[in-house]
Amino acid sequence: MTIPSQFDPKAVETKWYDYWMKNNYFHSEPDSRTPYTIVIPPPNVTGVLHMGHMLNNTIQDVLIRRARLRGFNACWVPGTDHASIATEAKVVAKLKTEGINKADLSREEFLGHAWEWTHKYGGVILDQLKKLGASCDWERTKFTMDPDMSAAVIKSFVDLYNKGLIYRGYRMVNWDPEAKTTLSDEEVIYEERQGKLYHIKYQIEGTQDYITVATTRPETILGDTAICINPNDERYTHLKGKKAIVPIVNRVIPIIFDEYVDMEFGTGALKVTPAHDVNDKELGNKHNLEIIDIFNEDATLNSYGLHYAGKDRFVVRDEIATELKELGNLEKVETHLNKVGTSERTKAVIEPRLSDQWFLKMEDLVKPAIKAVLETEDVKLYPSRFNNTYRHWLENIRDWNISRQLWWGHQIPAYYYGDTKEDFVVANTPEAALELAKEKTGNAALTITDLKQDPDALDTWFSAWLWPMSVFDGVVNPDNEEFKYYYPTNDLVTGPDILFFWVARMIMAGYEFSGEKPFTNVYLTGLVRDNQRRKMSKSLGNSPDPLDLIEKFGADGVRVGLLLSASAGNDIMFDEELCNQGKGFTNKIWNAFRLIKGWEVADIEQPEYAKKAIAWYEAKLNKTLLEIDDHFEKYRISDALMAIYKLVWDDFCSWFLEMIKPGYQQPIDGATFAKAIEMLESNLKLLHPFMPFLTEEIWQHIAERSTKEALIVSTWPVAKPVDEKLLTDFDHAAEVIAGIRTIRKDKNIPFRETIELKIVNSENVSDSFDSIVTKLGNVTAVEYITEKINGALTFRVKSNEYFIPVTGAVNIEEEIAKLEEELKYNQGFLKSVQSKLNNEKFMAGAPEKVVANERQKEADALAKIATLQQSLESLR
């Protein structure tokens, strides 16, 4: 097989991915092996690959490929999420361009458009993951709206309702006026914004006096039903029992007293609008106040808005301020910085709104999830610092609002049979609901047409929290073979931003529906940011297209570039140079392989230096393998890659191949060549999870392989005992070789010119690597001596002095002059450092790290001076 001079990622990636797919290496079926299971965090069905997906799925692929090499039955389940809010918003926008209003469509008609959109754009992101090399079990691809997945969602709702954990309540919720749906607290993002504080005067009924109230939302005065004052506020004691008149609407409202009011904020008087503020609602309940909702579902004003009806809330804010000023009721306006809740999906400003919604009680569900992570550690978070975030969220949890006013999603299985909101039953199917309704009402004449299903859909997370179970049909059919084999899964890789949204809820669902945890380890990745620390986004234009990066640097180069800086939980400052570094690494490995394959093999005796090099590299490989396995055990994926990177680049390419390389136009012995190939193959196994395409290409070039011998299904190396002395001796030898090379460079002694090396062996240094020193330093002989010699160049390694007798190419007088000048400079530097260390004021005031740094400078200078003095002695 001809080896190309350059590595071509484009040709290689398509070839080997097709080969892996053709031979079904990614597919898993239950068997006698131990399973290793990962479920993908399902991306939005109509989404496209971004840098966050690239990072997350590369890590998953590394874990699954390594597990496959280690002999586990590796199963990586891919899939997509229906993403109710995001997908419905896209479909609504698309219909709008066609002149179609959602409100003019029936639910069935709209869902037809939604499915059409999903079939057209859905799955694009999964195809893009294949370009990255993701070795998912594509035969198991799931979609949260698949019939079996939907059945799991409906069954879980019915089961929880029958346990008394789901209820319907009229509550204050977070309303997204753009998506026209409620949101959970976790889907609201709070942003600091510069706004205004309006001081509005309310006339006291029957007097010419006024009370001033400060508000950031003057438009809501149209829904005011009281003014509240702290009973301890002496400024307003005279207003007890009085009433005020709301400007513009002229509504007479009571002045109430409650310690809830902060006397220090604004004027100390609070306008109460129970329909539009959660705290006002609690005051309204406590003081039996009227509730007046002034907004439509799109946050325009309704008929309570009088002449502002139909106008947007922010338009009204400015117009009502103008009217209040004209009426003499606007005392002043101040700038004010406050936190504004916005929708995570649509970015619209959230409107608190009273609404009938479905809720899930969390008080009992959360207990096993807290215990599993924070007490028994049955589920471990990496890095563990996220335990504190997890604890805070779960210990302060509120009931989960699980209903959404959307059509795209799982329709709530509640069926109404009467005229009140209490006349409903909950069932898995309309037929089952009819039987329950007949039983509940005693009316045997009821028919399916008498039932009306609740129009709301369930929160997308309500299907996502079942994901590790539902992908194996573990909710509807928990006794099936696959669920019992693959569940609980092993590792979950996701972002910390959905630690509560998804991770915590999956743990709750796991214990609630299966009695077991859903996974054992959670690896939390950081966010991918640009080099200005900004989060990558389309709106900022700072996010490269991952497919463009793969086109430019190759999938392996991009994977390496991302992972070298991707420590768990820490954000990545992405720069394309990282991918270029990854590309450089692929070229380095490819060229090393070509070098080996380019050697002529002959039936000759194996030299001593080759034997020693092989023994050393085997020891180095085994030691590094132990480090790599430890890094994986602790989910330090970036550290594992860096250890492999150094092993291959420094130890294999820069040292091992140089040590065994035959002389110019000389052959290599068969035993050494075979060992070089063996060591290369071990390296490829370690590299494969990170660089699957390059490694498979080289693996298949090395020898003709059957499908059972492909690298993807080979075996992960097993570490053997490490000869530490061998490694220590080599490290010393490497320093000696570096010393020789430095002298050759500094003194212009060409490598082709042989030299002698004499060692004052004060530490009884091992001579085991002398053959390597001889070869790599082009040394004629290594001689161990007891006394220093004069007229030689010298360098030190630890306490050993190495002498290179001077040849005619070196001018002794010039060398002495240069050393004396360098000695003088270092003595001056030492004096300046020691003057600082002898300065009591400096020592008393300087930070500990600064002092330590100065002491290190002193030590380094003293060592350098000693070396220079010895070098001068040897030349004089």
Describe this structure in words.
The mean pLDDT is 91. Strands 7, 8, 9, 10, 11, 12 and 13 form a 7-stranded mixed β-sheet that branches. The protein has a 4-stranded antiparallel β-sheet with strand order 6-5-14-16. Strands 29-28-31-30 form a 4-stranded mixed β-sheet, sandwiched between helices. It contains 27 helices and 31 strands. Helix 17 packs across helix 18 (576-597) and helix 19 (608-633) packs parallel to helix 21. The longest helix has 28 residues, at 848-875. It is globular. 44% of the residues lie in helices and 17% in strands. Among the domains are: 181-351, Valyl/Leucyl/Isoleucyl-tRNA synthetase, editing domain (Isoleucyl-tRNA Synthetase, domain 2, Alpha-Beta Complex), CATH 3.90.740.10; 584-722, Orthogonal Bundle (Isoleucyl-tRNA Synthetase, Domain 1); 750-875, Helix Hairpins (Orthogonal Bundle). With 876 residues, it is of the alpha/beta class.
